[in-house]
Structure to design on (194 residues):
C-alpha cells in the first residue's frame, strides 16, 4: 500500500493540475451540492465550515458561507492554536472581517470564541483525498482528528473534494476518524458508517 505522504504528494500534484477556472467551477458545483445536502437534513442549523487557504488551492467555500448566512444558519469556523496543536471554534457572522494568519489561513480579525463546540451539528472538512469508507488524506498534522474529539459524538463530518471518493482503501491509523460522507462536483456520497 502507498504511504500517506506519497499519496499527499500525488493528490497535491493532481489538484495543482486543475486550472483556476476549473477549480472555481467545481467549487460552485460543490456549493450547490452542499445546499442540496442540507435540504435533506432540515434539523441541522449549526454548521462548521473551513475557510479556503488559497496557497493550498482548496475548495472555495466563500459562496457556500454566504449562502449559509442567507439561509440563517449559525456558522462557525476555526482558528489554529499553534502552540497547543489544536483548533478553537469561532462564530462567524455576515459582518465578520477576515485576515490571513501566519500560515495564510483566513481567520476572523476579532474572533468570537465558542465555549462549547458541541453545539456544532455538521462539519464541512477540507481534504486532499478520501476513500469509499470515509478514510481521508488531509495535510498530515492531525488538527481535524483532534478537533472531532471535542465535538458531539453524533456530529456529521462531511468532506469537500474536487474528486469523488476513491474505490481503493487509503492508508489510515487507528486514531484517524473517518468521515460520514463526501460532497464533490459529481454529487453527494454518504458512507456506510453513517
Amino acid at each position: 500500500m502507498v504511504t500517506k505522504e506519497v499519496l499527499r504528494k500525488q493528490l497535491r500534484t493532481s489538484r495543482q493540475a486543475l486550472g483556476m477556472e476549473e477549480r472555481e467551477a467545481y467549487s460552485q458545483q460543490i456549493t450547490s451540492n452542499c445546499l442540496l445536502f442540507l435540504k435533506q437534513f432540515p434539523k441541522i442549523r449549526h454548521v462548521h465550515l473551513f475557510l479556503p487557504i488559497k496557497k493550498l488551492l482548496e475548495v472555495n467555500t466563500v459562496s457556500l458561507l454566504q449562502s449559509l448566512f442567507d439561509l440563517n444558519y449559525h456558522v462557525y469556523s476555526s482558528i489554529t492554536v499553534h502552540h497547543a496543536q489544536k483548533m478553537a471554534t469561532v462564530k462567524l457572522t455576515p459582518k465578520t472581517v477576515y485576515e490571513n494568519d501566519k500560515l495564510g489561513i483566513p481567520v476572523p480579525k476579532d474572533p468570537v470564541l465558542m465555549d462549547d463546540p458541541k453545539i456544532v451539528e455538521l462539519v464541512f472538512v477540507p481534504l486532499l483525498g478520501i476513500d469509499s469508507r470515509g478514510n481521508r488524506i488531509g495535510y498530515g498534522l492531525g488538527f481535524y482528528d483532534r478537533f472531532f474529539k471535542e465535538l458531539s459524538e453524533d456530529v456529521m463530518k462531511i468532506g469537500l473534494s474536487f474528486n469523488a471518493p476513491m474505490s481503493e482503501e487509503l492508508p489510515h491509523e487507528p486514531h484517524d476518524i473517518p468521515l460520514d460522507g463526501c460532497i464533490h462536483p459529481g454529487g453527494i456520497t454518504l458512507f456506510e458508517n453513517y
Summary: The chain has one domain: 4-190. The CA atoms of residues 112 and 186 lie 35 Å apart.
